[in-house]
Design a protein that fits this description.
Blueprint: H1 24-53, H2 57-69, H3 72-109, E1 114-119, H4 135-140, E2 145-153, E3 161-163, E4 177-181, H5 185-188, E5 192-196, H6 201-206, E6 210-214, H7 215-221, E7 231-234, E8 237-247, E9 257-261, H8 262-269, E10 276-281, H9 286-297, E11 305-308, H10 313-353, H11 355-363, H12 368-405, H13 413-439, H14 443-449
Parallel strand pairs: 4-9, 6-8
Antiparallel strand pairs: 1-10, 1-11, 2-4, 2-10, 3-7, 5-8, 6-9, 7-8
Helix pairs in contact: 2-12, 3-10, 3-12, 10-12, 10-13, 11-14, 12-13
Length: 450
């Protein structure tokens, strides 16, 4: 019987068997060394994967901000173009809307309160084509009418108007307009006097030979004062000048005319009916008076009269604003185009100066899209800064001009808050070509160029 060796429970190794397995501790030490040796390779592969996939958004912004801030003088000059463009856009549109508001306000106080009633030339019958003499009294009963008066153009034939001042050139006279009106005419057209007075109902009723001269007619006749009771001749008939008209609203031809009372015109020129009725209404009542006037004047046949009324305030305001905005938007667009071209030129110049940097980034594993993204972000940042500063300048410009002119500033909130984004969009568009140009640079070409 063969005894086994004591103290050993192992079977002796066979001469044909492989090498014995190392102990567990030795195996763990070998695995740790292998992992330590492989760590640099894994780190290099990880870094390469990160370069291939590109930086995160934060890294991209950091790189773009660093590139923009690296040249502060160029940044200021580049941003200045966008600042001027956005400021011109915001300022011109704001001033256009403010001016439109002032224009429509003045329109409301003048033309928007004027209504003119005249016979319809296409009316049927002789009576239908005439205005009654008491038309101003009939209109005055309507609520919203401030003043009313008739006006007519007189046919004086070949009669000329001359003064008796004895000045050279007055012998042959002047071919001036001769008109007739009721006492309420001057109030209806907002007439103001340079000197003298207007004729009244007494002059009209008595058919006095008195006239009021428009300022241009008075200048042509050489009359500038009425305290000496100057006279003018219409043909062979003498008329005393009692006043000189300085200004009117809506009836400018009165400033070039010789105006006499209706009663005088009936007697001297057989005036049978007024030509038109001038009505001045309260603000906002013109449209209503325009509807009621034909019925009040000719209740039996209101269709025989035509009414000339101003358009509604909304229509006028929109028309004025659209015209002014179209003009100012065109000017702002030109300024924006100049700012965008400035960003494009400077960004392209920056690409040419940073070829070595671009080549180094490409050699380290940055893809074309990463280089393009960096330059696009730089252009957007410049455009946004320019839009922000330009908006502030445009708003201050609008408020300052309005304050000096005692206007109420009107600003479009959509444009005010959207202008910085518009600047960023201009920067994005302007930086597209330079970014594409930068991304097309090959690493070997860039490194050779250095």
């Amino acid at each position: 019987m063969v005894r086994r060796a004591s103290g050993s429970g192992r079977r002796p190794a066979s001469p044909t068997a492989g090498p014995a397995a190392p102990p567990a501790g030795l195996r763990r030490r070998r695995r740790w060394r292998a992992s330590a040796d492989a760590a640099p390779g894994r780190e290099r592969r990880g870094r390469k994967r990160r370069l291939a996939t590109g930086p995160a958004v934060r890294d991209l912004l950091d790189e773009a901000l660093a590139g923009v801030a690296a040249r502060p003088t160029r940044l200021v000059l580049t941003t200045l173009g966008t600042v001027l463009g956005i400021a011109a856009l915001v300022g011109t549109v704001g001033l256009g809307q403010t001016a439109a508001g002032q224009i429509t306000q003045r329109f409301d106080l003048a033309a928007a309160t004027r209504v003119v009633v005249a016979p319809d030339d296409k009316g049927e019958g002789e009576a239908a084509a005439q205005l009654p003499w008491d038309a101003p009294d009939r209109i005055a009963r309507l609520n919203g009418v401030d003043a009313a008066g008739t006006v007519s153009q007189l046919d004086v034939g070949d009669d000329l108007v001359r003064s008796v001042s004895g000045l050279e050139g007055q012998k042959n006279g002047h071919a001036l307009q001769v008109m007739a009106g009721s006492p309420g005419l001057f109030d209806a057209v907002r007439g103001s006097l340079r000197t003298g007075r207007f004729f009244d109902a007494g002059h009209d009723r008595r058919a006095d030979r008195v006239v009021v001269l428009g300022k241009h007619a008075a200048e042509r006749l050489g009359i500038n004062r009425v305290d000496s009771q100057p006279a003018v001749f219409i043909g062979d008939q003498a008329y005393t000048v009692i006043g000189i008209l300085e200004s009117v609203s809506g009836k400018a031809e009165l400033l070039d005319a010789v105006i006499m009372p209706n009663g005088t015109a009936k007697l001297a020129y057989d005036l049978t009916a007024p030509d038109a009725l001038e009505i001045r209404t309260a603000v906002g009542a013109a449209q209503l008076i325009a509807k009621q006037a034909p019925i009040a004047i000719a209740p039996n046949n209101p269709s025989a009269l035509t009414v000339d009324a101003p358009p509604t305030q909304g229509g006028v305001r929109k028309g004025v604003e659209s015209d002014l905005n179209a003009l100012f938007l065109l000017l702002g667009a030109v300024a924006l185009l100049v700012g965008g071209l400035g960003i494009a030129n400077v960004t392209l110049l920056s690409v040419l100066e940073r070829i070595s940097e671009i080549g180094l980034r490409r050699a380290l594993g940055a893809a074309r899209r990463h280089v393009a993204a960096q330059f696009l972000v730089e252009s957007v940042i410049v455009g946004f800064l320019g839009g922000l500063l330009g908006t502030a300048v445009g708003v201050l410009l609008t408020v300052g001009v309005s304050w000096m002119r005692d206007w109420t500033p009107i600003l479009d909130n959509r444009l005010t808050f959207g202008a910085p984004l518009l600047g960023a969009l201009i920067g994005l568009i302007a930086g597209t070509y330079p970014a594409w140009k930068a991304s097309a640079i090959q690493p070997i070409t860039a490194l050779r160029g250095t």
